[in-house]
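Step 1: inspect the first sequence and its tokens.
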Amino acid sequence: MLIRIAVLILLLALPAAALEPNEILILVNSNVNASQPIADYYCLRRGVPKENILALPLGDLTSDTISRADYDRKVVIPVRARLNSDNFQGKIKCILTIYGVPIKVG
């Protein structure tokens, strides 16, 4: 009986754990032509507001790695500024990187 109650509580809590579209910040590489259209499509399909797209000039696709200095300057500072802005402060729970954004920090 106790196990059934625990399973029922878990099943009822699952929908509450889902992300809302306005809780997602999408990072795109403004230097990669395909990056923005992919983000636009994601927003259209998932209902994420276009204001939640942050386009950053992160270079071309010659490598999937970004240096630590470039990461701090080109990613951390603008993302932190967006997260601390009045419209986003305390609202973003997930940062989604789109094709073209480096995935490794060297």
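Step 2: inspect the second sequence and its tokens, then contrast the two.
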Amino acid sequence: SNMFNQDGSADPVWEYLFHIVEILGRDGASSDDSEMEDSPWGPQVKICRVKLREWRARWLDHYLELIDRDRNLVNAYGNHRAGNTPHIRKRPALVKSSSIWIPAGLPRNFYDDGWFNSLPETKQRRLGPKPPIPILDINVPEDN
């Protein structure tokens, strides 16, 4: 629902973010460790501690954080959305690295330059990077 403005027109920023998530796919999303933690609002809640995808370009992390922060928890009528409540996602200063599957065929600028350049040429070719896509400059205040 973030994708559309109140007048029904598509929001170009959210269209772009949706496109990024589509390209990344499931294998490109952040992994996390889940645990229960005391909540100041009542019983324990499930917390997901985000783990770093070493291969993924840092600019993508910024976009994924924007998506996490701006998720809509209610529908247009102010009612809670159906389904499970989204978990709280924490990004600690010292993030654990995740070595899960590395998706092939992503745009070249989705891979971290240092990581990609450290690979032997055969592994670089096996990843089969596609041409880079434009990076949209999205400046959102940190407390949004």
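Step 3: confirm your contrast with the notes below.
Residues 27 and 103 are 6 Å apart (CA to CA). The beta strands are 31-39, 42-53, 88-90, 97-98.
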